Every structure is written in structure tokens, then in C-alpha cells.
């Protein structure tokens, strides 16, 4: 991969991908290139529910998700 290139991968989130995420890292912030893809984003339909910037150590969550935990 050249220095200016970026690759985007799309996966359906289901039990198999959930298990994969859990097995390969115990934190969203451990997903850092080149060992693992970084900057994970999770969508429901066209809405980004969770966006993670692994190497910067921050994330954004859709406000509607917080209602689940109230």
C-alpha cells in the first residue's frame, strides 16, 4: 500500500462479525493499522451509529443510542 492510499471495507454486522470483533481486540481503540483495520464505523441503514478514530483515541455515538441505557 502506498502512503496516500486508503482502503474501505464493508461488512454486514451479524453474530459472526460480532464474534470476530470480540476475538481480535478488547477495545475499539486497539484497531490500528497495519495489524488491524482502523477507524471503524457502524451504520444502521444510512445513519452512522458509532464512529471510532482509533489512533486519536476518540469516538462519536449517535444520541439516540443513549436512550437505550437510560
Overview of the structural elements:
By secondary structure, this protein is α+β, with helices and mostly antiparallel strands. It has helices at 15-24, 63-69; strands at 41-44, 47-53, 58-61. A three-stranded antiparallel beta sheet has the order 1-2-3.
Write the layout of secondary structure elements.
Elements (H helix, E strand, L loop, with lengths): L14 H10 L16 E4 L2 E7 L4 E4 L1 H7 L1
Antiparallel strand pairs: 1-2, 2-3
- Oligomeric assembly: single chain
Order of helices and strands: HEEEH
The Rg value, from CA coordinates, equals 13 Å
Taking the sheet with the most strands, its summary is: 3 strands, antiparallel
Strand order of the largest sheet: 1-2-3
Quick synopsis:
With 70 residues, the chain is of the alpha+beta class.
Using brief descriptors, characterize the structure shown.
2 helices, globular, alpha+beta, three-stranded antiparallel beta sheet, 3 strands, 70 residues
